[in-house]
Amino acid sequence: MTRLPVRIAAVMAIAAATALAAVARGQAGQAGVLWLAVSTVGPDGRLLADLTAGDFVVEDHGEPQEVAVFRNDPIPIAVSIMVDVSASMEANYGLVRRAVSALTSHFEPGDRAVIGAFDALPWISPRFSARPEVIQQDLAVALSGTALSGTLGLCDGDWIDRSSLSTRNTGSDFGARTEFARRMAIHGGSAIWDGAACGVNAAASDGETPRRIVILVTDGMDTMSFSTLPQVVERATRFGVMIYAVSLMGGYGMAGGDLRQLAESTGGGYFFLTGGDDVAGTFRRIGDELRHQYVLGVTPTGALDGPHELVVRANVPGSRTRFRRVTLGAPAALSAATADARATQREPGAPVDAPLPASFDGRSARPAVVAAEAPAPAAVRSPVWDMLDAFASSTWHSGEAPRMTADQLRGMVNGLRQGGDAWIAAAPPSGRDGRRVAAAGFVLDLLYSQNDPVAWLDRQPAPDLVDWGARTLQAMPPSPEERLWYFGVLALCERGGAASLLERTARRAAGRFPDEARFVLARAIAEDLRTWPEERDVRAFRPASDVTARLIARYEEAAALTSVAAEATLRLAYFDLRRGRVDAALERFGTIDRALVAGDVTLRFWVHLLNGRALEQAGRLEDAIESYRLALDDVPAATSARSALIAALSAAGRGPEATRLARETLLTPGAAIDPWTIYVEPDMRFWAAIADRLREAVTR
Amino acid sequence: MTMMPRRAILIPLVTSISAVVAAQGQVFRTAVDAVSIPVSVTDGNRPVAGLSAADFEVTDNGAIQDVAVERVEHLPTDITFLVDVSGSVNGRALERIRQDLQEMARLAAPNDRVRIVTFARDAVDLFGLVPGGATLDFARMAPGGTTSFYDALVAVLAGTTGNGRPQMVFALTDGRDTSSFTTASHVAAVAARSGAVLCITLVRSSNPLVREGGAAGTEDPLAGERSVVDVPASSAMSAVAGGTLPVISGPTSMTLSVSRSAGPFAGGPALPALRAAAAATGGVVETDSTRTPAPELFRRMLDDFRASYLITYFLTGTERAGTHEVSVRVKGHPGYTVRARRTYGS
Predict the structure, then answer these.
(1) N or C: lower Cβ tally within 10 Å for chain B?
(2) DSSP 3-state assignment of B98?
(3) What are phi and psi of B25, to 5 degrees?
(4) Measured between alpha carbons, how far is B34 from B26 in angstroms, rounded to an integer?
């Protein structure tokens, strides 16, 4: 379209929407009109945009129906764009951004969209917007995984277990969790049907246009929805919402199956796209198709609300016609008054940024959750205050947090939610940021002090604790302390092999500190963690292809950032080596700027040790021996380098040297720290400094 | 053939005999290489005794060798116990390991020598070689840590070369390796050049109390292995190049406990690779899931080892340099199982 000045476009949008709504409401109310949204494609697959009422045949129970109303003028569309943000989708995020951009850049006056996302639960932006930049901003929030703390909120629906939320846990039983609460935190899995249902609800809330659509973008199969496919179809049918399902690469399990059924049952379309397909073009096509829908009004012979068996076809040979019965007005579950109020509040010329009804507003849907998190009145002293007071004092040392059972930790989460915010609020305004740092630091120490992080760090309640700490710090402007805190969490996630929490936390951290290269690297390390531990010598190393793709992409992204370039390149080189690409590994090792590793003894050691392994595998034994010796120069007596050197010397026929070193190895103590043993938890090497500095910040 | 003096015969693997005999003032030859190989012969599960040099046919790089044969049971032997103390073996379990080791040491003859090498992340020779039956000093035994079994094997096998006595390495482990940098392939390569016979007994758990179905509280430490790596706290921090984080630049007296479950690697024992490593030395890998006490497991291995022969020959018909392929068979008894090292190299 030719771009119109914003003001004119907005006025046109309102006029078009209002006119249609008025006509539709009027005719529907007067004559019991049954409305159909119809689109027809010709034999060549192209949309037929210039048909007339006479070109259509409408039958109900086999009986021809007269087309009483025919509209083919531009009618705005209201689109819920629901994006699967489970981990497997990440490789497709770029495509999704381009696709949404393609759709919204072709918006015509009155068109509007709302962004939603789903993983274990569905999330939704609180507003429709006609402005591409706003939509892209919401999409960025959705894809960043910070929905909970960003502008998206939890979508209201059956997936919320309200009974669990209203039940306060007390005493020893206060750690009991619910499935819903678990989903609130895991940010994994694909609740596709819940996402679709949320999109339907959002689209249906727009009572001003019959062209209400959900575009559902996913790459996989539903793994955990409360909703079912039939329920979604029923709801979409009831409110006249069409669903376009876009299955991206990786969604073979869905292709031709449930997603197609969902789309076709609701009159929408199904697209299965691979990386080579024109994803942006597909979205433009969806937009064009929607805009070129015809609206047909027929007066059925039977009752309007009775059963209908409708058939709509066009008298064009070889054409295919899709149609959907549409209902104007908000669904019963919504407040029509809200929609009307929203319309009347809009000022002429203002952008169409309509807030969703309260029940769809994540922030207003949150109260059920927030109720459990609401700060206690300042006068009520929570038991957690004593621990926070102690931590904030100079008497608490790192690692002193009590060791707790999982239930006790869950109780601590509740305690922090109920009393932590109040503890912060109890300080004078000038002291609250300090308390925020202390409270978050307390959470970090709590995580650090537990005996077995591996057993639970990637599972609840650890993610809840991290969430609470992060949200507490996000209440103040980004600070060096918050940055340190994130470093600490990342280190602990690596220590526990908690790839999902690491990935999520690193994304969140990057959102707060976009300039911090280490957070970029941490996301790559999260993928790396998914390839460890490795069953060495038992079977060949074959990481999943999607993990490999993400791992390489992220390491390469990090390698472009000077401060982490060496480590990213090193780790990528070793990944190449692990999967048998010796030459590629050697080439990468050769590109590492030694000056960049000069100040980090651990990094230097890794470079020499792992390069030695690559040289050894390339048959360059003498070079390997030299590289292992360099590693031992960095960290004398490191068992890993000693053993590697012994084996290489032996293989090179230098038996006496190997024997001498072997005997020395057995008789002298190993290095206090062998960097090889922390290769899979690299940020732990910073832990001491992180803990010290946070400690200083808290007691300052 | 003429039997060589015992001291010449006992040179394990390959050495230049001229230096040895010269030191004794008895020069029989000059610059001649002697090769000694422990050989086990069984008929089914039964060791075959009473064999002599005339019963063996030995080729080295295809060249038939004249050999001398001696029963190992007649020779003083060095025995290395390689013991897994990784994970959270402590308390009663640790005490039980000490008792087992002491009992195993007593199974050795007084003219044998024994040493204890424990391994977790690092391998530690606790006190060097001591006479069989001696009271052992476990003061240096420190349990806990990740499991670097392969690294330990590499060090032990590479460090065990000729000292004039048969060498046996007895490893008792569940075989899981979580943190070695070397691999089982490295172990096999080093084993092929080692002077030791590697005997491994794989058990369900390195915790003796677990193996024996011990009392409550004796959980398998490796079932949910948690290890401790001591990370030195930093007193002098230096900046990462281009970054903002301080890094550890040197150890101080303060340490932070960093626990981690499995190290980089997981999974059960790499049985084929371990068998290859043991076979390369003429040794064997056995598995035991019967909760048999460690001393009994060792006694069986020791009996088998002592029932073997030490074949020695002066290398003829082939050059010393390079890797040698060795073949040993018992003439007229194709049904016998002959276990001997297959290769050696300089």
Answers:
(1) N
(2) helix
(3) 75, 15
(4) 15
User: Does any CB of chain A come closer than 8 Å to the CB of residue B262?
Assistant: yes
Select from A496, A537, A595 the Cβ nearest to the Cβ of B273.
Answer: A537
Selected residue with higher pLDDT from A645 and A344: A645
As given in the structure block, the two tokens for residue B201 are 């007994």
Distances in whole angstroms, Cα of residue B160 to Cα of each of B168, B194, B244: 9, 6, 47
Q: Secondary structure of A108-142 in the HEC alphabet? A: CCCCEEEEEEECCCEEECCECECCHHHHHHHHHHH
pTM of this prediction? 0.58
Q: Which residue is closest to B151 within chain A, CA to CA?
A: A643
When the pLDDT of each residue in chain B is averaged and rounded to a whole number, the result is: 72
Residues of chain B in contact with residue A651, where contact means CB-CB under 8 angstroms, are: 189-190
Task: Report how far residue A65's alpha carbon sits from residue A56's, in angstroms, rounded to the nearest whole number.
Answer: 10
Q: What is the pLDDT of residue A290?
A: 74
Q: Could you tell me if B265 lies within 8 Å of chain A, comparing CB atoms? A: yes
SS3 state of residue A347? coil
Question: What is the average per-residue pLDDT within A145-172?
Answer: 52
The predicted structure's pLDDT at residue B162 = 62
CB contact under 8 A, B151 and A640: yes
Distance (Å, whole) CA A302 – CA A60: 9
Structure tokens at B32: 């001649």
pLDDT confidence band for B218 (50 / 70 / 90): very low
Sign for the CA dihedral angle at A436, A439, A441, A447 comes to negative
Q: Report the C-alpha dihedral over residues B249, B253, B257, B262, rounded to 10 degrees.
A: 60
Task: Measure CA A338 to chain center.
Answer: 30
Name every residue whose Cβ is closer than 8 Å to that of residue A350 and which is 6 or more positions away in sequence: A10
| pLDDT tens per residue across span A417-430 | 888 888 998 888 88
Tell whether B15 lies on the interface with A, counting CB pairs under 8 A: no
Q: Can you read off the two tokens belonging to residue B322?
A: 């390079």
Give the angle subtended at the CA of B90 by the CAs of B86 and B94, to the nearest 5°.
90
A311 touches chain B (CB under 8 A): no
**Beta strands B113-119; B78-84: pairing state:** parallel
Kindly tell me the burial class for residue A590, based on how many C-beta atoms sit within 10 Å of its own C-beta (0-12, 13-18, 19 or more). exposed
Q: Are A670 and A638 in contact (CB under 8 A)?
A: yes
Q: Where are the beta strands (DSSP E) in A184-259?
A: 211-218, 241-247
Residue A153 has what pLDDT? 72
Report residue B89: phi and psi, to 5°: -75, 115
Given CB atoms, is B344 within the 8 Å cutoff of chain A?
Answer: no
What region, left, alpha or beta, does residue B28 occupy, with left being phi > 0 and alpha being psi -120 to 50 degrees? alpha
Q: What is the pLDDT of residues A623-666, one digit of tens each?
A: 999 999 999 999 998 999 999 999 999 999 898 899 999 999 99
* Angstrom distance (rounded) from CA A636 to CA A630: 9
Say what the pLDDT of residue A548 is. Answer: 92
Mean pLDDT on B54-83: 88
CA-based nearest distance B94→chain A, Å: 20
Nearest to A686 among B230, B247, B260 (CB): B247
DSSP structural state of residue A154: E
**Interchain proximity A452–B232, CB inside 8 Å:** no
How do residues A211-254 score in pLDDT, each as one tens digit?
A: 788 999 887 777 777 788 888 888 887 777 888 888 876 544 45
